[in-house]
Amino acid sequence: MEQFDIIIIGAGASGCMCGLTATKQGKKVLLIDKSSFAGKKLLATGNGRCNLTNINYTHTNKFFNQKIDLFFDKLSPAQTLNIFEKMGLLCYADNEGRVYPISNSAKTVVDVINNEINRYKNLKLLTNCEFIDANYENGKYIVKTSSGIFEGEKLVIATGGNTAQIMIDKFKIKYRNNIESLVALKTQSTKLVEGIRVSPVKLSAIIDERIVHEEIGEILFKDSGISGIVAFNMSAYFARKGYFKGELKLDLLPSFASNEIIDLINKRKNLDLPINKMFDGLFVPQIAYLILNNCKLNENRTTLELNENEIIKLAKTIKDLRFNVKGHYNNNQVYSGGVLLSELNQNLESRSQRNLFFCGEVCDVDGLCGGYNLQWAWTSGYIVGDAL
């Protein structure tokens, strides 16, 4: 049975950062993953471009489900980029602070990570390797995999989603149930506007009759729901509540006040157009129809026939179009939930089980879109690797 100082289950972003950090301190490390190469899931991030981090973050509680500044003090976005630059990766930041490789290809990120792993003889990477079970015996971890049984002084769980449940339950670690996050939201039928993108709009998430988050950006209508980065960010707040029930409030003209929209409609009223043409030049026909349909206006009338109450109703609809949230689509980007941080110390080691560490998505930390979740992966992986 081959022995290691550290065994890491999961060779995603956090597992790779953890393994490389520990290896550079002279530790003998085993990194296992069921995929065919390390960092495979990174290929799907940032629409294939890999949004590594975000340089515009200030306080983490603005972007995450909880305040984790103390962890980010140990590895910030700038320090992360310095690590990758030393690996040979060149990056740039867009206007939103989102950082991408200069190649605009996630594969280049995966390549430099695997190149770095291959540089170290004391870091063993086992791919196409299924984790089966682990037990703590005589102060050591005995890890059973599809590639054999290994012994480690310390064990790191760096898997995503529900895949670590066997270990969490075995060692009686407290956790919050995993719920899909950063995912398109299902609403009542939006077939009339399916495939239509609208930007800039303001979208608000209403849960228990209270606005919990609002944001300006682009949305994409689906057949029975709303997608796009802004909608994904709304989904994070539903996931953190533990249920996808509530409302979405859509403001189609966030840069206009209600009285300005009323003035705008009054000017269009004098154009003497069919009502279904009154928003030409302002909205695409599908969005105009959605507004008119919501207001239940007869399309056979003309704009000159609009009365004051109807104009006020049109303005209100443009500023406050409601959609009932009924669930979510598949293909979530991250999970909300995981091992409670109160169960872990400042090095992300279990308080109740010696030499058992957690990093990455398995922890109860989830962020909004924009590179924040990957930054948590790099930061948490580094913290654990540095402490081993």
What does this structure look like?
The protein has 388 residues and is α+β, with helices and mostly antiparallel strands. The chain has ten helices and 19 strands. It has helices at 13-23, 69-72, 77-87, 106-119, 165-170, 229-241, 258-269, 285-295, 308-319, 372-387; strands at residues 2-9, 29-32, 53-54, 91-93, 98-101, 123-126, 131-137, 140-145, 148-157, 175-181, 185-186, 197-207, 210-222, 225-227, 246-251, 321-325, 327-328, 334-339, 356-358. The strands form four sheets. Strands 1, 2, 6, 7, 8, 9 and 19 form a seven-stranded mixed β-sheet that branches. Strands 16-15-12-13-14-11-17 form a seven-stranded antiparallel β-sheet. Strand 4 and strand 5 (98-101) form a beta hairpin. The longest helix has 16 residues, at 372-387. The chain is elongated.
N-to-C SSE string, H for helix and E for strand: EHEEHHEEHEEEEHEEEEEHEHHHEEEEH
Mean pLDDT: 95
Low-confidence parts: none
Structural class: alpha+beta
Measure the end-to-end span: 21 Å
Structure described in brief:
This protein has 388 residues and is an alpha+beta fold. Helices cover 28% and strands 27% of the residues.
Q: Tags for this entry?
A:
388 residues; seven-stranded mixed beta sheet
